[in-house]
Amino acid sequence: MFSKETIFDVLRKYRVIAVVGASRNPEKDSFKVASYLKSKGYEVIPINPFTDEILGEKSYKSILDLPEEKKKRLEVVDIFRPSEEVPSVVDQAIELKKRYGKPHVVWMQLGIRNDEAAKKAASAGLTVIMDKCIMMEHRSNEDMLKIHFRKSKMGKGAKTC
Predict the structure, then answer these.
(1) Can you list the domains of the chain with their CATH numbers?
(2) How much is the pTM?
């Protein structure tokens, strides 16, 4: 359903990521991943109904509870919830996609798979990545991403050393 090229394109193109199931506990993977993404320049929007703030960012109960301006900019929904909870998150992503043309991607973290929800998301025009850690994928593509961002900051036709 997804290739290495798809993963690279997602990491390269999209900079606004909602982390559904974000934790304020530094020992939890969702905190580590959100912190890592933020340190790499991504805008991280924590989604957790039980806390007001994570990593200095306001936390929201769901992606549907985001303010209008964030809904319009949301590009990736990164899911840290059990596989059986994925369909409701995908339904929310589809609802936003219909309304705003975004998000573009549903990303289910390592160990999270829901084939039925993935088919539904793909049918709605969302790119779907399952059972992959976005932080690990970023790390494995980091050199290529740095080259891409260096070139894009220098302008078209620019060459790097």
Answers:
(1) 4-154 (3.40.50.720)
(2) 0.89
